[in-house]
Write a structure and sequence with these properties.
about 400 residues, alpha/beta, N-(1-d-carboxylethyl)-l-norvaline Dehydrogenase, domain 2, Rossmann fold, eight-stranded mixed sheet, five-stranded parallel sheet, about 40% helix, globular
């Protein structure tokens, strides 16, 4: 069985590699993006023999199934830009079964007016994309007729990943991913709000979170790690989509506006701490919006750098180009160290190493990557989110 993929951005590269790993012959169309993802080089190396690049989209007509897997970018206002996706779909020849894997707003798939088209909710998470592609929790499938059986080729592909398959109408599937992200945002916003209360009253969020994980209504997998608001492209894009739909249809989405405002406020937590410790240069560890990815979309670190124009800033990120060659190099003579991305690498540095490089003794570490107790014992002023 041969499965075609059109659109070799982050989503297409990872999903096609995972498909090849399940034993399918894979045909890929599109220029591969330069991405960084744990486990991806190894996955591609093992399965490269089953992946065939093509330059003519017409060759996709010979595939049993074609998956449109182009990442949908967002504009400056975090609205989806569907131009590239529509152009890609227009290039495709008629195929037996077409699956739209790219994230789209409700109404998009039905508007295509194509036969045998399905919408599949993508569950890509930067930094965990390979794991998620190989071991999905479930598949949510948008169908013209949810009660009808899926085409044999499509069903065979999905069944190879051994997870629940949930057919639903197009619009339900398109809204399902947004719904998941909205529940995630509610956890993020609630956690950040309570973490700041902890800082103000002398409580410690790290002591509270374990109790919440033992509550069956919240659970062990709840997102309870305080941070710097909503980063990346997808979460804010989905909030904007829901707010736009509410405006169009006269429903209330004031809670979404509140979440967006809360995210902007949380993003500036580091800046508020920096106001208490004026000094230069400022060392910034981490520019990616989260660990294990090179993506800087909606990165709190970039927002901070924009506000620090005029100050001397020394940056380091293990995946983002154009920074110092090492974390310690970025700390040379720094008055303040700010940790903006929770890369695992950062937890390996000791108070003694920082003291040997920095001229100042201030560390602002929102994600508690460093040993705060040791830093405090060695004379550093240490700040983290949700406690001191």
């Amino acid at each position: 069985m041969k499965i075609g993929f059109a659109g070799m951005s982050h989503l297409g590269i990872v999903t096609s590699a995972a498909t090849a790993a399940k034993g399918f012959d894979v045909v890929i169309y599109g220029t591969p993006a330069m991405i960084s993802e744990p486990g991806l080089p190894e996955l591609l190396a093992v399965n490269q023999s089953r992946i065939k690049p093509i330059t003519n989209p017409g060759a996709l007509k010979d595939c049993d199934l074609v998956v449109v897997s182009l990442d949908v970018s967002t504009d400056i206002g975090n609205h989806s830009d569907l131009t590239g996706l529509r152009q890609l779909i227009a290039q495709l020849p008629p195929v037996a079964t077409l699956v739209i894997l790219s994230q789209v707003p409700p109404g998009f798939t039905r508007s295509l007016k194509l036969p045998n088209v399905y919408y599949q909710v993508e569950t890509l998470i930067f930094g965990r994309a390979v794991e998620r592609a190989l071991h999905p929790e479930r598949y949510m499938i948008g169908c013209a007729n949810p009660s009808a059986p899926l085409p044999d080729s499509y069903a065979k592909w999905l069944q190879a990943f051994d997870c629940p398959i949930l057919p639903m109408r197009y619009e339900s599937a398109e809204l399902a991913k947004i719904s998941i992200n909205m529940f995630l945002v509610s956890s993020v916003a609630t956690t950040n709000t309570l973490a700041e209360v902890c800082e103000a009253i002398g409580a410690d969020w790290n002591e509270i979170a374990p109790a919440l994980r033992l509550d069956k209504r919240i659970g062990q997998h709840a997102y309870l790690s305080p941070g710097l608001g909503i980063a990346g492209g997808n979460l804010e894009r989905d909030l904007i989509t829901v707010r736009t739909l509410a405006e169009q249809h006269g429903t209330d989405a004031s809670i979404v506006t509140a979440w967006l405002a809360n995210s902007r406020y949380r993003r500036d937590w580091v800046l508020r701490k920096l106001h208490e410790h004026i000094g230069e240069p400022i060392a910034v560890w981490g520019l990616a919006y989260k660990q294990d990815t090179a993506s800087t979309k909606n990165s709190p670190a970039l927002a901070l750098l924009e506000l620090l124009k005029g100050f001397r800033v020394q940056t380091y990120d293990p995946a983002v180009k154009g920074t110092a060659t090492s974390a310690l190099e970025a700390c040379a003579d720094a008055a303040v160290l700010v940790v903006m991305t929770p890369w695992k690498e950062f937890s390996s540095y000791s108070a003694a190493q920082l003291a040997g490089k920095m001229k100042g003794r201030v560390v602002i570490d929102p994600f508690a990557m460093l040993d705060g107790q040791q830093l405090t014992a060695d004379g550093f002023m240490y700040h983290r989110v949700g406690g001191e």
